From TrEMBL:
Its cofactor is [2Fe-2S] cluster; [4Fe-4S] cluster; FAD; siroheme. Residues 550-611 form the Nitrite/Sulfite reductase ferredoxin-like domain. CDD domains: NirB_Fer2_BFD-like_1, NirB_Fer2_BFD-like_2. Residues 622-758 form the Nitrite/sulphite reductase 4Fe-4S domain. The gene is nirB. This is assimilatory sulfite reductase (ferredoxin). Catalyzes the reduction of sulfite to sulfide, a step in the biosynthesis of sulfur-containing amino acids and cofactors.
Amino acid sequence: MRQLVVIGNGMVGHRLVEAVRARDGAGAWHITVLGEEPRPAYDRVALSSYFDGATADDLSLPDLGTHPHVDLRLGETATAIDRDARTVTTASGAVLGYDTLVLATGSTPFVPPVPGRDLAGCHVYRTIDDLDAITATAAGTTGTGVVIGGGLLGLEAANALRLLGLRPHVVEMAPWLMPRQVDEGGGALLGRLIDETGVTVHTEAGLTAIEPGDTPGALRVRLGDDHHIDAGIVVFSVGVRPRDELARAAGLELGPRGGVAVDTACRTSDPYIHAIGECASTDGTVYGLVAPGNAMAEVVADRLAGGDAEFTGADTSTKLKLLGVDVASFGDAAATAEGALEVVVNDAPGRRYAKLVVSDDATTLLGGVLVGDATAYAGLRPLVGRELPGDPLDLIAPARGEGGGGIGVGALPADAQICSCNAVTKGAILDAIGDGADDVPAVKSCTRAGTSCGSCVPMLKTLLAEAGVEQSTALCEHFAHSRAELVEIVLATGIATFSDLIARHGTGRGCDICKPAVASILASLGGGHILDGEQAALQDTNDHFLANIQRNGTYSVVPRIPGGEVTPEKLIVIGEVARDFGLYTKITGGQRIDLFGARVEQLPAIWGRLVDAGFESGHAYGKALRTVKSCVGTTWCRYGVQDSVGMAIELELRYRGLRSPHKLKAGVSGCARECAEARGKDFGVIATETGWNLYVGGNGGFTPRHARLLASDLDGPTLIRYIDRFLMFYVRTADRLQRTAPWIEAMDGGLDHLRAVIVDDSLGIAAELEAAMERHVADYSDEWRGVLEDPHKLARFVSFANAPEAPDPTISFEVERDQPVPAGPVALGLPVRRPDTLEV
């Protein structure tokens, strides 16, 4: 039996062993794996989930040591290679002979050589042990953490600090975040969106030193001579360096920037030694992603089995959700090819940026960047290097193209890669489906597609659907039920917590899909205050503080003003609050007054003043009813035929606080002139000479829809009954984050079916829907008041846990048009202007 020694037990080394075992049915190879860490191989791509409840066992890859031909040695470091004797010596003194040696030693984090980098409280972000050390340090900090490096891993580290309860700062030398993946325009928008999550971003900032702070354990991060950040922890995420010290000592040829030089067979300058992953240099390039490493592992496994596979480069496309922001980059994203043209949609108000790089004749896709909305990624990435199916602008500007932008999977050829991490083509997936893989887990098991980063999973679902395989409506991998089915389960069982629901009807710990969705279900069915107990941990970002976070880390306060009607006394209170707390004020399109610039520790005091004056939360932060806009109706207008203000106030007070799958907006117009724009709302009411017309399914946003008539000439009580039924039916049956317009469009029978349910009671559930709404009305209580009356909830509203009254020193303002606004330029996300750039 031949001896294969693998130095390194990371993801790529693990993949190599799996690939060799899959090809070596005759048992020709005995494999010895040397792992430096004391634990088996684990998923570094998902490392950040460790801060969101995942355990080391959850991250572990399948155990290789159970195979009779695999000797897995954990906690054993290779110290020397004797090429002449073909042996490897380990730290324990063991000497292992090999017929073939594979270096899979990976990389090590780079720490800039600045003074203070070795101080206690300074960490790197690479291994589970590193994460344990970060967690321990964060437990005793002052509330601020600094991440050095604004790349992929740096933003993940920032999110980790946020999950640990700190206020993260990210320091990046480049002019924008993620400079290796996105361009200037995408980076500008990314910076603005990351800012809105409460992470303070410092670009074009150079780290000069780390010094001890003014208190024990504190650190001072110097950015030049005149700027510093006081913090309790510093995490370095500047980049990595290939671990090539063993190869260097053994006299192997190295790449120009480090790493072990290899050929297309992943052989080093010694034909008995291969190198794969982040320690290997191919044509002078060291790849820092798992997909190229996996491809190299497959090449070496094929060669050991007698094949002739070659590594000729790898897809470095990435699609990630960083701090809740979608980012994707693929192909020649930087437009380095000669004659490359850029087609750009830069929609700053819509919070999306898209760029395609095409050939000089605009017929071939070369690459692209997507920020804010990466839904087109799955269809675009497989087209890189191929002829475009049409106008490139139609692929990223949904308003122009049919079908919502991007390209359908049906248009892709069989050899197009669907999963770049594991090099799985559309043809391979269709073959698996044809062989009986009838759901996403089965396709994953057969092909490995979707088992790494997961960005191709939507394409797998589409391919299954187009192959005629009925698809699951599961909410996520943790619940086999749809959102509507979970609503019915909660109603039938009386379950009141997420942990109870997932224990009895789900699996695992949950994720950022099911947790907020279940929180919304529990809230809409009378689950108490959203910050009570376990509920608080499930909420989306804004719901955590019952306010919308803004670009500089402050919050907006939006009191409810039903129907837009407000007394002079209440207006005076709003003005006094804005003046006393130094807030920016703005009247919105929904007939409310927004107060911007409140620090988190100021929120309870501001709410107290407003609540005392008779205001309550306007739910601007929640997936709930926002506003019921009205005109002045018959009270003042000579054209009005009904009291639109009175009806708007009645509806807003009735449905306030109703948690729903998505936000809800409404309008009431006193005549057909439609001054309240009721037909652009989720439900709209327009007065007639004999009553009210009810319209449903109107939405603003990226794809506006006009509401359509559901019922006409209704009296007041009937109108309210129909709206009760409509809203509660929507709450119980819509998918997560599904607005009313697509909900109706996706419904079998569409508006006609909805009319039958709401007006004709075709399902016999009208009485129950009305009763559910009556329970909501009876149980309603103001969420702001609920915080003010509960000391435990009040304790959440601080910038620093050890200094509750202290303001965040990083927040600053300047004056514009006599009002305070965030200091510094607003990142509008504008790229370098080109003739072929479309700006929205």
